Amino acid sequence: MNMRKWLRQKRVWAQLLIAAGGLFVATLVFFFNAVRSLPDPGEIADIQVSQSTKIYDREGEALLYEIYAEEKRTIISSDDIPDLVREATISIEDDSFYEHPAFDWRGVARAVVVNLIRGRVVQGGSTITQQLAKNTFLTNERTISRKIKELVLAVRLEKEYTKDEILDLYLNQVPYGHNAYGIEAASRIFFEKSAKDLTLNEIAVLAALPQSPSYYSPWGSHVDELEKRKNLVLRRMRELDYIDDVELESALEVMPEIADQPETGISAPHFVIHIQDYLRDKYGEDALRIDGLKVITTLDRELQEIAEDAVLTNVERNSELYGGENGALVAIDPQTGQILAMVGSKDYFGDPVPEGCTPGTNCRFEGNFNVATQGLRQPGSAIKPFVYLTAMQQGFTPDTVIWDVPTEFSVSCPGIVNFSNRNPACYHPQNYSQTFSGPVVMKEALARSINVPAVQTLYLAGLNNTIETVSKLGITTLNDPSRLGLSLVLGGGEVRLVELTGAYAALAADGVYRKPVSVLRVENAAGEVLEEYKDDGVQAVDPREVRIINDILSSVELRSGLFSASLPLTQVPGHQVALKTGTTNDYVDAWAFGYTPNLAVGVWAGNNNRDSLTSRGSSILAAVPMWHSFASKALAGKPLSTFERPVPIVSSNPVLNGKLIEGSLHTILYYLGRRDDPQFPNWETGVQSWLQTNSVDRRKFELVDESSIENPPAEGKIEIEPISPENGSFVSGPVDARFRIISEKDISSIEVYLNGELVGQTSDVPHRDFTYGVEIDQGLLVLQNSIVVRVTDEDGLRGEESIIVFK
């Protein structure tokens, strides 16, 4: 009996041992499977975390937008983490952090009991080290295998790092809610300040969040519970002697002010998307979303807010009065080329208008389309200053007399203009006023934006020469002479607002062109500078002619005839403002460009789908008020800056000096000796037809005898061929700049400019085929250099050629 009982007990013990052995083996297998894919200590020591790209305003203070893969994160150094942040976190999350190893046995035991009672994993008992392991390497799944992995990783972390290092890693990793990971991101989002500037009360709020970021969200519905937990943090800090009674009581009394939750998390959206595209093109998508770039832009936050208000307010007005549903604005510092404000539409997040329209097809308004950078629109008369600038470069003067009379510019059509003639082969532009003034000087024609003289001026200046001028000033879309023709001066062709504003900024900068830029500095996560703004301005056009244009456009007296009752809107008290407007055919596009030496502003008003503005909604009515709304506030309180005065130009030809010939009134081609010009018959017909029913106001013009024209100039031609150095080449040592010049007339002067400064000149030119050279000292060279040679013949005709060389 005893033997049988003993045998039964032996079998039971054997079965128990086998079961225990099997359980042990199964546990080992389970443990091995759970931890075999974990990173080794070497990988843990090289923890890499993704960081979001942050785009700031020009001061580096206002965060415009944060680009991130899934998490908003900014890693900060230990020196930038306040001790109170560490102490508050330890107090509420793991008050024995510095005493226990990687895990707290008491917390683990407590969690096991709770989980057994509940029948599932509901509590973790995790230390700060365990939380770091979970946040860095694991998911949030509640399973036993994940918990084992967490414990193993925690042990490895404690071997690789000191307690202080682990705590700082945790504070740079822990989620605080609303995609904010790490104390710096949370501080920026909830308090709009850096972590190093947080108050005790603000620190306590942030320390309260990690336990349940969504439940305790400062923007959620449990703010009362958040305040209670914040106070719990403070009391625990007092119990652990991190703060004293005075600090405790003062912090318990109030809840710190939480920043407003942004509706979109993006400021200046059109500008920011423009920046994002630039960064993506230059650095790639991965760098943009995970490398933690810090981007300091050129945006002036105050001016941007003024610009957004000006566009929205005036588009609402235009919508009621003229059916214009959109507008855009760009503001540039002419002395740097930096974009200070950019508004691509009245409301980036606005619904398309009209309701039900198809974006890109028939919408009058599309919010996220950036008209400033993406829109190609006809500039209307806004291109005229660059035509007159080119004419001045060819030897014409602001007092040159041209004729504002009905003129047919197509040589295949009758010279007598019939405005009812709709033959597309004919071209006889009408003036906005539908009246004609007869003889006018160029400066008046430009200031009053008279159409017919502008077309004549384009012909005199040369279409190719004008295209070259606007190209030098950064306009990239007007480069096909065969497509443009003489209609260019009235807005044929299409431009971008940002480029045309950049061209006007070059006028404001005395002819120095700077490509509009939007980035001041880009740093990587380590603080290394990847790129930084450098002034790359080049003397694109001679300041002498630019000053003439600035003088014309800034003359209130000259433009008064055009603006009439709207004249006050073209002025800003205490500032000298140059201004030009533009309206395209059928009032599709309305423009206004106004500038001082320190601020250039361009605005556009119209409809995305090119529907016309109704009720003759011209630039004066639809665009100038928008420009004035911005400029009057942007320039308020700024010191006065004035344009350089032009040097008076006197020509041997009286018609170029604002005089008429007594008893011999003809088109300007007559006095230039170009009577065989294909345009001469039609131009002359226009003048003589006008004189049959109109008379010249002799009070405006001095009449001189035809004999005062000693040698009526004939059409000439100047060719300039650069010999050395080669365009685009790199040079060292003194530069031997040599040019071959071929002229149909005797050459009166040759001038050579380096970066706008005269470095060589001569009037001793023995023959019409001549090679001129000048040696340029190496000390005068900068990284990028413009060498310009300008040649003038005996009749005042000018030729110019330029090359770029690099040091």
Could you explain the architecture of this structure?
One of its GO terms (molecular function) is penicillin binding. Residues 670-733 form the FHA domain. The protein is an alpha+beta fold and 807 residues long. It folds into five domains: 1-36; 46-70 and 268-376 and 474-649, Beta-lactamase, CATH 3.40.710; 75-252, Biosynthetic peptidoglycan transglycosylase-like (Penicillin binding protein transpeptidase fold); 395-461 and 662-714, no CATH class; 718-806, Sandwich (Immunoglobulin-like), CATH 2.60.40. It has 26 helices and 26 strands. It has a five-stranded mixed β-sheet with strand order 2-1-6-12-13. A five-stranded antiparallel β-sheet has the order 8-7-17-16-15, sandwiched between helices. Strands 23-22-25-26 form a four-stranded antiparallel β-sheet, with no helix packed on it. A hairpin with a 2-residue loop joins strand 16 and strand 17 (599-606). Helix 9 (200-208) crosses helix 10 (223-239). The longest helix has 34 residues, at 2-35. Mean pLDDT is 85; it is low at 24-35 and 114-124.
